Amino acid sequence: MPTLAAGLSVGEYIRSVMFRLAALIAVLLSAIWALDGQGYFWPAWAWLGLGVPLMLDRTASWAWRHPPGAVRRVACVWALVSVAAVILVLTWLLTWLLAGVQTFWPAWALLGLGTAGSAYSLFALHDRVLVAHGRRALRARVEALTRARREAVDAQAAELHRIERDLHDGAQARLVALTMQLGRAELRVEREPDLRLLIHDAQREAHRAIAELRDLARGIVPPLLADRGLLAAVESLAARYGLGTSIRSDMRRRLAPAVERAAYFVIAEALTNTAKHASAAHSWVQLSDEPGALVVVVGDDGRGGADPEGSGLAGLRARVEALDGSLRVLSPAGEGTVVEMGIPCV
Amino acid sequence: MIAEDLALLREGLVALLRENEVDVVAQVKDGPALLQAIAGHRPDLAIVDVRLPPTFSDEGLRAAIEARRRQPELGVLVLSQYVETAYANELIGENTGGIGYLLKERIGDVRAFLDALQRVAAGGTVLDRQVVTELLAARDGPRDALSSLTGREREVLELMAEGRSNTAIAESLFVTPGAVEKHITSIFAKLDLAACHDDHRRVLAVLLYLRVAH
Description:
Chain A contains nine helices and five strands. Chain A is of the alpha+beta class. Chain A has three domains: about 10-105; about 145-220; about 225-345, Histidine kinase-like ATPase, C-terminal domain (Heat Shock Protein 90). Chain A has a five-stranded mixed β-sheet, covered by helices on one side. In chain A, strand 1 (about 245-250), helix 8 and strand 2 form a beta-alpha-beta unit. Chain A starts with 9 loop residues before the first helix and ends with a strand. Chain B is of the alpha/beta class. Chain B folds into two domains: about 1-125, Response regulator (Rossmann fold, 3-Layer(aba) Sandwich), CATH 3.40.50; about 130-215, Winged helix-like DNA-binding domain superfamily/Winged helix DNA-binding domain (Arc Repressor Mutant, subunit A, Orthogonal Bundle), CATH 1.10.10.10. Helix content of chain B is about 55%, strand content about 10%. Chain B contains ten helices and six strands, in the order E-H-E-H-E-H-E-H-E-H-E-H-H-H-H-H. In chain B, strands 2-1-3-4-5-6 form a six-stranded parallel β-sheet. Chains A and B meet through helix 4, helix 5, helix 6 and helix 7 of A and helix 1, helix 5 and helix 6 of B.
């Protein structure tokens, strides 16, 4: 917008000139009335007439400050309504003061203006009000669901831990006690080969049961993960695969059991895939304890081409998404595979 | 001296040891009690469960390492329901003997178990064959000398890790001691290790090979 020497914009300059002109006319008319022998104070009507454009200017510029759309339209309507109402009230005031009119005749007109303005506002803004309400309700619902899911996942992790403990202290311990007793019995019947063989067989069955329970417990909560945390468990896992996997980590603390478990099983699956399919020369795992999230990257330089929607990876994605995390698999053919996982955690 | 939190196993183990003329001087349920009892009784050997109260994680392992640090002549046999090579490495650490790490179910083979106890008390090293299996599995690769071992040689290697003598290995594999001798010579040749006949040194040599190459 062009500006004048005084720093005012052209619009503001015209506005101030008009304001002064109006004031000058008002003073002039009042002077004429005073010189003309006074009597009926007719310049009041001129004042009112001069005031109307000024009021319109003020209210219009107020209304225009609102964001475009329904809100600005409603503001414009209310600007007009209020100018009309002021004109009505001032006119009544003058008829009362100058002509002694007793009744408040603008009452019905004001009521009509107010009703029309309100009706228009309601019509223009109803969906906006409803949407805002709906949005608030939706946000509250999402928060409640997120919290409930987190609690369910944590409860599940605690429950799995409890099952593992129960297996360890219950069935597994009883079977170990059983093998001890069988061992003692075996020593007492050394001279009876038939009986000894029978006890020996019973012991072998007990050993199989113990081994099965151990595998089961390992699948639920790998012992090293529960005891030592993610880094130690991943190191042991990598050693078991013998891929010479390099591990980098800045983990300094234990995370929620559900988060550690999810990360562990993602890394286990990724390394299994590397060992089985990738024919990679190098593989690596990176654990980063970033503010508010655990980020895990597992990569190899093998043949790539893994199907990101394969059943193993899909199962992992479900596990990670249950914790509000995300899983990304990049596996262009011939360029290795990178699995990236992020799980929010405090 | 026994540290085990589950009464069922503790009592079973005590009964088994007493029947076989092993004197059990104390039974405790957690790590701190173990350290206290060791100072009081100065036993030849402590049998310790890895998982003990209050944390039920690796409390027993840490107590065993600490007990050993305080009393270097103490034999320590750690029992567990699962095998972690990381724990075996920690336990052995700088120690040169008097260390054992076995799965709990090995107790069922009473003779072998008592034999292992004796070896650990006498300063030997006994590792569960599962440790060797896992270390071997970790090193499985086409370029590896270990892959040239036959199935039978692997079995012998695993039993060797338990610190067993040739005769004991022969008995458990139902072969003659001469055959075991041949397998061992072959294993050492394949792994390029200097042959030695001391059972204890043999375990360490094998273990060192597996860990260093690891």
